[in-house]
Each structure stands twice: as C-alpha cells, then as structure tokens.
C-alpha cells in the first residue's frame, strides 16, 4: 500500500500492541506482541520524504495502562500534535519535533521499558505535520474538594503503606477513576504517591479520580481497615 502512494511526504504511525492490563500486552495467544524489526521499519520508510514512527523497538511491547484512554505512546503523540511539540514563534509542529517530544516522554514514563523508533528516507527537511492555532487544548481540571492538609497527608500515608509500589500498585489509581498516563511515575513508591497527590489536589490525575474514590478503592481491598473507614466519614 505504501509503495503505491505518490505522496511527496508521508508519515506512518505504528502502535500495534494491545494491552491486557497495567504494563502488559497480549497477542492472539496471550503472548507478548513484539515491535517491528529494524529491517521491516527501514523497508517501510523507503521512498521520498517518508517517515515511520513506531511505538517501540522490535524486542519491546507497547504499554497501555489500565484505565487509560490511549496507550502510553499514543497519549504523548497526541499531546505533541496538540501543541506541546510546536516550534516557538511560528506555532508549527514538525515531524522531528513530534518524535523528539514524545519519544523521551514514553521512555521516562515506561521506566525505560519502551523506546519509540524513528525511521526516515530521503528527507530534505523537518517538514510541518500540524499547526498550533492556539485556544484551549485541554479542559481545565475540576478543583479538588477542600480538605484539611492533615487529611490529605493521612490518606497519602495510608496508601503508601497499603500500596508501596505507588499509584500503579494493584491498579489502585486506575480503579479509582484515575489516568496513570497523567502521572509522572519514577518507580519509587513514596515519591510517586507524593507527586500523584499533588496532582490530584490541583484537579489533575484523571477525569474521575478523587480522594473519596481512592479511599473506596482501598476499602475494596482492605474492607476492615479502620483508618480508611474513618476517612470516608470525613469526606
């Protein structure tokens, strides 16, 4: 199909893997779905002004966190095209800039488990792929309900103890209506919880996430946890 195209400039985006849970990918037989090989990507990129951007290396899988609207790669790709990769001054979003923005973000958020790939053939310039026309790109997050600082700290301390691996532990954040792709995860549990609660208090972290939802999700796992029960009565 690509060989039949007469377009002078062509960008192909590949994100072929489908998630079956947090950080896991499933193929038709339940196994991991690998990325495209270097040889295959080079063959696809043959032609004038052709660019292939793939979500992962050949020996990696593309991550999709439970509860997230898009895969990790697609989320950062969309953000790039919406304007985060625009060139200062002219507002033009160019193909190299899209990859240079999305690639490191994916690598960081996946804790080094996923690395997008860029392949190009006979490119003469960093050509535009989108135009940032300004305006509101994202809906403003709803403010978090007012809670005393001590209550926020109590909730955080309890969840750090119950879910030491961080907001992704046992999918607690996603089960509470949050979007893990909106968090910057480092793999350090307490650090990630601190950052997640800071985001939550600013109204971010996902469209449906709330302190109340986190407590209720925690009680699903720890039904008789007295501190969680007490906090639920405060909210």
TrEMBL record:
Domain Peptidase C14 caspase intervals: 11-127
Native source species: Azospirillum brasilense
Keywords of the record: Plasmid
A Pfam family per the record: Peptidase_C14
Annotated InterPro entries: Pept_C14_caspase
Protein name: Caspase family protein
Keyword Repeat: no
Domain of life of the native organism: Bacteria
Keyword Cytoplasm: no
GO molecular function: cysteine-type endopeptidase activity
A biological process term (GO) from this entry: proteolysis
Gene3D superfamilies, per database record: 3.40.50.1460
